[in-house]
Design a protein that fits this description.
- The protein is of the alpha/beta class.
- It contains 13 helices and 14 strands.
- It has an eight-stranded mixed sheet with strand order 10-9-11-1-12-13-2-14, with helices on both faces. Strands 3, 4, 5, 6, 7 and 8 form a six-stranded mixed sheet that branches.
- Strand 4 and strand 5 form a beta hairpin.
């Protein structure tokens, strides 16, 4: 048996009951995208037949252009995030079975976001100062400080509403390996504060025309619990990561990791693995980041929809490559409503589309934790139960 867990990054489906605590009451990524694209232009046939509209209907919302199916191909439901927060690491970890009891540390948005207990030893080790030290959009701060960075050699450091320490550098000024070494040192310095991720943000170009490259690398906090990767590895199941999944999980429990960048490459990799490894038993966990990185944060509704349509097209090809009993799960890690104020993630339910070829679809309702996803996969592979979650496969 093979199983693929696919994360459409930030594709939330309605505000969680506690969304008001995060300033997100009323957010709904899926609904607001469909409401802002002419209905006649919405064409998501595979997500529709799998039951995306059914997922939304569970929360009392009708998705324009994506009707609920009388007999969806997949089991359909929505999942609540039990862990506090609305960031990438928290969401992916919970999907894999890790539930946090306290949120990751976030830095203040004003100037001098980062404390001296991090910056001082960093500057001493690498003999550099820092530029920025604030909460900012990555593109904006690179355009604003990129020329000064090139003149001084000082890296640009910035944060966001997420638990992140981001460090940007021109690849011709600070080579990649040195930038990654800076991140490894920052990772150690950030560990005592429980910072979710340190992120390398390399870029190229000249002042007025800077562009971030595909060499981004995430350095995540060590995992506090075992995950579905660990459980399946112990069972002898091959585990495969695609996209930024390997970085998010520090490669723990992952046998093969493909660090492809962007949706086209990650979708192609997923299809390639499903096709070339026919007859093998494995678990594949993939993230499709463009919906979040390029369109959610930049509040680009049309771009977000176009990325969904691209994923939808690939889903049809993936389904054709499955054999009876194989599993395809489609979900998200949080929301990032492109119609919402600001540029940050939104605290939302996520859809759970659980397709098992040859099995009838069922209404699996509102799940109390993302970790039900991991527990369901463990049950299907006959692995040891995880600490958190309830399987929705009977």
């Amino acid at each position: 048996m093979k199983a693929a867990l696919l994360v459409i990054d930030s594709f939330g489906i309605g505000a969680l009951p506690d969304a008001g605590n995060y300033g997100d009451e009323g957010s709904n990524t899926a609904l607001h995208i469909c409401q802002n694209i002419p209905v006649g232009e919405i064409h998501l046939p595979n997500l529709t037949s799998l039951g995306l509209g059914n997922c939304s209907e569970i929360l009392g919302n009708i998705l324009p252009g994506v009707p609920a199916e009388a007999a969806p191909l997949a089991s359909c439901g929505v999942m609540m995030e039990k862990s506090p927060g609305k960031d990438t690491t928290t969401g992916h970890w919970e999907l894999a079975g890790v539930v946090l009891d306290k949120p990751f540390h976030t830095f203040p948005a004003q100037e001098s976001s980062f404390p001296e207990e991090i910056l001082q030893p960093f500057s001493q080790i690498f003999r550099v100062g820092v530029l920025g030290n604030e909460s900012a959009s990555g593109i904006e701060i690179i355009n604003r400080l990129g020329e000064e960075h090139m003149n001084t050699g000082h890296p640009i450091v910035y944060t966001s509403a997420d638990s992140v320490f981001q460090i940007a550098a021109h690849e011709e000024i600070i080579p990649l390996e040195r930038l990654f070494e800076m991140c490894r040192v920052l990772r150690r310095l950030c560990d005592p504060l429980l910072v979710g991720r340190v992120i390398a943000r390399p870029f190229l170009g000249k002042p007025g025309n800077f562009e971030r490259t595909s060499n981004r690398k995430d350095f995540s906090l060590p995992l506090p619990q075992t995950t579905i990767f660990d459980a399946l590895s112990e069972q002898g199941v091959k585990t495969i990561a695609v996209g930024k999944i390997g970085d998010i999980f520090n490669e723990q429990g992952i046998e093969e990791s493909f660090h492809d960048k962007g949706n086209p490459a990650c979708l192609n990799r997923t299809l390639q693995l499903l096709e070339e490894r026919e007859g093998q038993s494995f678990f594949l966990f993939a993230n499709y980041v463009d919906t979040d990185m390029f369109y959610g944060h930049r509040r680009d509704v049309r771009g977000y929809y176009n990325a969904l349509a691209e994923i939808d097209k690939s889903l049809g090809q993936m389904i054709d490559l499955l054999h009876p009993g194989d599993i395809l799960m489609v979900t998200a890690d949080h929301g990032c409503d492109p119609t919402w104020a600001g540029t940050d993630h939104t605290r939302e339910y996520v859809p759970m589309i659980a397709y098992r070829k040859g099995w009838p679809g069922e209404n699996i309702g509102i799940r109390e934790s993302f970790s039900d996803c991991a527990q369901s996969l463990a049950a299907c592979f006959g692995a040891s139960p995880l600490t958190h979650g309830v399987s929705f496969f009977l």
